[in-house]
Amino acid sequence: RRDNRRVNGAILNGAITWQWRHFKWCYPVGLLSEVYYGK
Fold first, then answer.
1. pTM of the model
2. Distance between CA 31 and CA 15 in Å, rounded?
3. Which of 7, 8, 12, 24 has the CB geometry, 3.0–4.6 Å to 30, for a possible disulfide?
4. Domain count, the chain
């Protein structure tokens, strides 16, 4: 089940990254976060 947890974590991280890139044009905070984190 550790593998499942790892996969779930990867999916969660991917979803968060997708949301940030999808909404970065709507929310200035997204742009600031990308500049701050270098993403």
1. 0.35
2. 17
3. 24
4. 1
